[in-house]
Amino acid sequence: MKAILPAFVLAAAGLAAPPLPAQVMAPVLDHDTAQAITGHCLALAREAGHEVAVAVYDQSGELLSFARGQASPAAAEVARWKGRSAAVFRRSTLETADWNLPTVPMIATIEGGVPLFTADGAPVGGVGVSGAPSQFDAWCGTMGAEHAGLRIARP
C-alpha cells in the first residue's frame, strides 16, 4: 500500500500538469542562401563597375556571410553596420535614417541595408551593401534577396 500511494500521487500530478506549448518552427536564413545573396550582389556590382562589400545577417543579428572584394576597409565596416541594422530592426536603413535616432545602438542611418523576409512575410535577416552610391547599394541588396527567393518587405 505504501508503494502504491506515491505512484498514484505522481501519476495524478502528471495528469494535472498543463500541456507543454507546441514548438513553432520559424524559418531561418541558412548559410547557402546567405552566400547566394552575397555572390549575386558582388556580381551585379562588378558588372556596374563598383567594388562593394556585402554582409548578410540572420534575424538575430548574427553574421552569416561577408565578402569585401576590392572595396575599402571602411566600406566593409559600413556594410556590416547596414546589414545588422536591417536584420534587427526589420526595416531598410533608408527608413531607419528617417527616424533621426543616430545614437540608438546598431541603427544604421545610411541607405544600403535591407531586411529579408520569406515569401509569406516571416523575417529571416538583413543584407548590407556599401562601396557604391547608396541607392545602388540598396538596389544591389534587393536584387540579391530576390535572387535567393526572398523579399525585402512583408507582403
UniProtKB/TrEMBL annotation:
Range of residues in the leader sequence: 1-22
InterPro entries in alphabetical order: GlcG_carb_metab_protein, PduO/GlcC-like, PduO/GlcC-like_sf
Record has Oxidoreductase as a keyword: no
Residue ranges that the Swiss-Prot or TrEMBL entry lists as coiled coil: none
Origin: domain of life: Bacteria
Kinase as UniProt keyword: no
UniProt KW keywords: Signal
Xref: Pfam families: HbpS-like
PANTHER family: PROTEIN GLCG, SLR1406 PROTEIN
Protein name as it appears in the record: Heme-binding protein
Record organism: Luteimonas wenzhouensis
Taxonomic classification: Bacteria, Pseudomonadati, Pseudomonadota, Gammaproteobacteria, Lysobacterales
